[in-house]
C-alpha cells in the first residue's frame, strides 16, 4: 500500500471500541490521506475523537438482516478494504443464558459478515476498487471447544468454514477474502474473571491491531 494512502478507502465494521477502534487509529496514523467509514451501533460515542477523512454510519450487526441503507452506503463509498471486526457473545454455561443472547452472538459473529460477503460478491461490478475483505476470527474459538463461550465458538467455527469454502470456490475469492485469527484480546467483551485473563493469555488490543494491519499488508 502507498505511503500516505491517498487512494485507500477503509470500511471498518465494529469500530467503536476495542480492536476496531485501535485498528482505525493505527491505520489513520499510517495512512493519513486514506478515507474511512466507521460502522457500529454505538459509533456516535466517538464523534469527538474522529480523525480527518472519516465518515460514520450507525448499524446494528445483531439484526437478522442488513439494512438497505447500509448496503447502499458501502456501495457508494467504493472501498478498497472492508474489515469486519465486530464480535462477542455471552459468557457462561450454555443453558444458563437466554437464547436471544446466543442469537446475538451468531448474528454478530457469523450471519452479518456472511451477508456482507454475499452482497459484495453478488455486486462485484459496484465494488471494482475492492482489494481485500478481512474478517476477524479467533485462533482458539474457530478451531477448538471454548467452554463458557459456546455460541461464540459456534459462530467462529461457522465463519472459518464459510471463508475456507468460498476461497476454494474461486482463486479470485482466495485473494480477496481473508480470515485473520488472533488469540484472546483484552477488551471489555472479555470478562475479568474469564480464564484467558486469569491465565495471562489475552493480548492488548493495540498489539493485535498492529498484527491485523500487518496481515492486511
Name the features:
single chain; 217 residues; alpha/beta; Rossmann fold; six-stranded parallel beta sheet; two-stranded parallel ribbon; 7 helices
Describe this structure in words.
By secondary structure, the chain is of the alpha/beta class. The chain has one domain (9-216): NAD(P)-binding Rossmann-like Domain (Rossmann fold, 3-Layer(aba) Sandwich). Helices cover 41% and strands 15% of the residues. The chain contains seven helices and eight strands. The chain has helices spanning 18-30, 68-77, 99-122, 150-169, 171-176, 195-198, 205-216, and strands spanning 9-13, 35-40, 54-58, 81-84, 132-136, 177-180, 185-186, 203-204. The strands form two sheets. It has a six-stranded parallel beta sheet, sandwiched between helices. α6 links the parallel β7 and β8 (203-204). α1 crosses α7 and α3 (99-122) runs parallel beside α4. The longest helix is centred in the middle third of the chain and has 24 residues, at 99-122. The termini are close together. The relative contact order is 0.15. The model has no long low-confidence stretch (mean pLDDT 91).
* Class derived from helix and strand content: alpha/beta
Number of domains: 1
CATH architecture descriptor text: 3-Layer(aba) Sandwich
In DSSP terms (H or I, runs of 4 or more residues), the helix count works out at 7
Give the ordered list of helices and strands: EHEEHEHEHHEEHEH
Amino acid at each position: 500500500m502507498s505511503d500516505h494512502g491517498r487512494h485507500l478507502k477503509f470500511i471498518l465494521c465494529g469500530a467503536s471500541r476495542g480492536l476496531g477502534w485501535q485498528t482505525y487509529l493505527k491505520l489513520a496514523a499510517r495512512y493519513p490521506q486514506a478515507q474511512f467509514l466507521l460502522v457500529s451501533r454505538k459509533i456516535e460515542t466517538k464523534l469527538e475523537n474522529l480523525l480527518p477523512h472519516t465518515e460514520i454510519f450507525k448499524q446494528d450487526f445483531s439484526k437478522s438482516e442488513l439494512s438497505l441503507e447500509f448496503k447502499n452506503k458501502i456501495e457508494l463509498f467504493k472501498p478498497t478494504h472492508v474489515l469486519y471486526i465486530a464480535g462477542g457473545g455471552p459468557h457462561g454455561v450454555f443453558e444458563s443464558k437466554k437464547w436471544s443472547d446466543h442469537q446475538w452472538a451468531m448474528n454478530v459473529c457469523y450471519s452479518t459478515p456472511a451477508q456482507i460477503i454475499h452482497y459484495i460478491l453478488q455486486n462485484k461490478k459496484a465494488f471494482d476498487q475492492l482489494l481485500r475483505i478481512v474478517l476477524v476470527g479467533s485462533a482458539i474459538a474457530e478451531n477448538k471447544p471454548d467452554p463458557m463461550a459456546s455460541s461464540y465458538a459456534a459462530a467462529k467455527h461457522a465463519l472459518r468454514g464459510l471463508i475456507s469454502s468460498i476461497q476454494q470456490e474461486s482463486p479470485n475469492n482466495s485473494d480477496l477474502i481473508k480470515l485473520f485469527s488472533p488469540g484472546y484480546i483484552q477488551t471489555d467483551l472479555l470478562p475479568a474473571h474469564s480464564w484467558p485473563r486469569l491465565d495471562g493469555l489475552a493480548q492488548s488490543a493495540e498489539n493485535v491491531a498492529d498484527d491485523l494491519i500487518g496481515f492486511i499488508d
